[in-house]
Amino acid sequence: MRHTKTDARSLVPLVVVGLIGPLFMFALLGDQVEDRRAAGWDHAILDLIKYFPRTPGDRQIGLATYAAVLAAALVPLVLLWKRRMREALFWALAIGGVLALDPLLKNSFRRPSVGGGNGYSFPSGSAMLSVAVAAAIVLLARRGKLLLALAGALIVIVYGISIVRAEWHYPTDVLAGWALSFAWVIALWLVFAAPSFNRLRKTASLRRRDEE
Question: Residue 70: its pLDDT value, please?
């Protein structure tokens, strides 16, 4: 019983910081775009970011996005080859989930793109994908998690700034994409792969079996 309570307590920070917090942020940002227009501070950041050092152009950003999708498709194959079945399923759902959620959410909020072109922009699917890949890699890594987390955060931030500066998305699109994607990956991790959660679930299952 004490072991079960300890495992449950160890999950509280992860649930609050990784799940409840990001979902709350997404809800706040979604509320700001209910009128399908940019928030006031979106324009302020767009004006400010023009003074940042030049970032890669549309072509380079597009190539980086396609490279990330290709790499993401290969990872579960490697995990399956190593017989890490549960982790392969986690990865497939983490990446496939954000790719599936992207068009559904865009059609729900229907916020016009920055340049007023075809398609919708909220939330940013590119930002969602970058966070899903980075977070999943860190969670699945057997060693060097801190270094991977720092490197992943840097890449995600630089990529997010790049797509805003290239006027692919508003800042709120990117922040919402980050928040929702992180919450999605953490939720899947708790269900499929988190050691503490699995121990807690097994303990609860054994208790029910004993009671029967």
Answer: 76
